[in-house]
Give the backbone structure.
Amino acid sequence: MPKKREKAAKVEEEEPPVIEIFLFKSDACIFCPRAEEVVRETIDDFDASIFKFTIINVTETPEAAERYGIFALPTVMIGGVSVTGIPEPEMLLKMILGAKVSKKKGETE
Amino acid sequence: MSEFTIERMKTGIPGLDELIEGGFPKGDTILVAGKAGTGKSILAIQFLYKGATLYNESGVLVTLEEPPRLIRRNMLRFGMDLAKLEQTGKLAIVDLSPSKEIAPVTIGEYPSFDLSGLEAIIMNHVKRINAQRVVIDTLSIMAYKFRSRDILREEFFKLCAAITRAGCTLLLTSEVPAQDTGLGVFDIEAFLASGVIVLYNEKISDTSRSRSIEVLKLRGSKHSSRIHSMRITDEGIRVWPGEITPSH
């Protein structure tokens, strides 16, 4: 029995860490729909289970944007860094990679 | 001469209202420009404090530079207890200063953004406390936060229009770089506002400086065209309407 438990724990450890992606947008922002498309297209190339994609509509919940100090839209935030404006996929990939590395680093420490 | 009079919003700053026909035109955008250390933030926050305590008009302070805890501490020196006003719903401080711990590090900017988020954040507080006065301190910091100045210029116009459309009187502060002769880093500050107040702190000798205030423009008002003495006292800013600064 203890052996089985050990095995289960190992499987859990090997699960890839979830990377949280936030997109801040508003109803009035004309660039935001394209920014959302770029994010979706970029993460489509990966296993969907490693991402948690959250869209924050600042028109509906301005408090969330205020909490993070984000007021220029669209802004994409991944793992403590952000880009403003419609992002280039390469930039998003760099941010995703950065978030993955820092998550792994955090796990080993 | 028409008998039509423009509704005024008293600043409550001793001496200033006498220079501007009793107050700022209600619902206008006013720019307070000056070099570092001239008292722009004090004047702007005093406008909110006096509005709340003397005229029962609530206000929103949007701080883009100084963290709220330092603003509260600094204004207490003048006997202005901002925390108390916040507790009673007479003042809202919107912290968009770079010192926020939770704020992400910006690593990229593309010239395809707007300030609709800032508008939503400000208008949320305006509605919440039914604000009549709004201060944005300071516009200049945006020049260092974002590279796309053309976008910012256009967005400032939209932002000011949205705030004043809601019936609020808006005060913007703008820091003039040390060697500059204009009214701010964007070169459009004067166009944003229907009123411009300039603060000075000029060196008049090797050992002293003299503070003064000038109403550069105020649409719809017969304002003073002189430069008047101003001091930062224990009770905040005080203007001497009868005193003309000797250095100018």
Notes: Residues 15-104 of chain A form a domain with the Glutaredoxin fold (CATH 3.40.30.10). DSSP finds four helices and four strands in chain A. The mean pLDDT of chain A is 87.
